[in-house]
Design brief:
Blueprint (H helix, E strand, L loop, with lengths): L12 H37 E10 L12 H13 L5 E5 L4 H8 L7 E2 L22 E4 L5 E6 L18 E10 L2 E9 L7 H16 L5 E7 L12 H6 L3 E2 H6 L2 H4 L24 E7 L4 E8 L4 E4 L3 E4 L6 E8 L4
Helix pairs in contact: 2-3
Amino acid sequence: MTDTDPLLDEASPRWRRRSAFICLAIFSCGCLALASAIIASYFLLYHKNVVGLRVMSLNTWGMPKTFGSEDKSLRMEAIGQHIQKGEYDVYLLEELWMRPDHNMIKSLIPEGYYMTEVGDLASSCDGTIGPDGCSGLAIVSKYPFLELNFHGYSDHGDAIWFDGEYLARKGVGHARIEPAKGYIVDMFVTHTCASDYNYYYRQRQVKELVEIVENSDADFVVLGGDFNVDPKVNANETTLPDIQNIMVNSIEDFFKTIETWLVPSRATYGNPANTYSSKYSPVLYDYIFHKPRGKNMIWTNYFEIPFLRAFKDNVSEVSFSDHEAVTAKLHLWKSVV
């Protein structure tokens, strides 16, 4: 070998193939290590910043017996005892019209929980003899209330129907909470006009509701309640589309396809398993909706319609209400940018 001879045989195809393979292997290992580091960092950040929020909404069927409700005292105590378990972080209640029933449930809430007063979510309310002027709304929360307010709907039904809608003062109840430091959540609860013939008033009420929700400056917004509108039965209304234009429906968020959630077994009124309303056609009236602000994210990790029962005379069981509750376990993620 002379000084001018190459150390490597550059013309050797075998060496060139080996060199290319080594370079490719080193490059691939480097890319894999970089991708692994990025993914690990993402999941570490993701799990660190995700906050869970468990929500339950229930129409309590709190009308006085003279207005048609059944087993009310028994059911109200059972609802309070269920809330006492503290299985959810926020409870959104509708049709809690009467002050004694409100007081019953409040006396049973878990230690450290908070509950709105009758006057917090109503413009004026009798609630001792009848539901005149009442909204029937209440919120129970594991977290302190940072803000509380109530917006009464401008439209309340027609007096000619004698259905109580005109005398009641339905609206939107609002409570601001902070389930984790820096995570501001606006909780809204509502109950709109009942009965198909009240579609005009129900649609106008929801347009007011949407405007209120859109004005929220919270990091996250959660809305629950009895909307008295079924996706199929009331398909001609603007009620649901107006809400879903700005919010996500939790039951649809979790079950994805309509065939899996718009079925009798998941009806919230007229459910075949309900001891009071099973004689009626099954419909989905009760919902939980959510929306984030900006680049924040919120999604439904789990959704369930539990069949809550109470013992009557230690013999038979009765449903908590003529409606079924809806529950959602939400995940909240706040953007750091």
